[in-house]
Amino acid sequence: MADGRRAAVMIKITAMVAATLLSVASAIQGTATFYTPPYVRNFCCSACNGYQNDGVMIEAASNAIGNNRAACNKRYRVRCIGATNSGVSQPCRGGSVDVRIVDYCPSPGCQATIDLSREAFARIADTNEGKIRIEYNE
Question: Which of 111, 107, 134 is nearest to 31 (CA)?
């Protein structure tokens, strides 16, 4: 009995490790900036959900991932991997943040792959940096 349980535990652990490695391996690299509140303005609304309050763990998608607004409401896990500027040498705080696409960040104004809310950016990096290198996946 003990050997059967031990084997089952080992299979579960192996599956969890494989899933984690697959998730890391499928991460895409890009850059992130941030924008500040109000996220739903009186004069304008989000490209995805109109005037709906989507909270603060949100992002605007650039053309690189926006897919002509087909990415609306998709969730992404974003992790800081380094600086892009010579400002803050170690901007990353460690960890990741889960965000949902609620807006569109068109070119040429959009200066990054993902434009995070200030709150989401601050979870993974020092906001004094302004723009960071990231890995992200769905």
Answer: 134
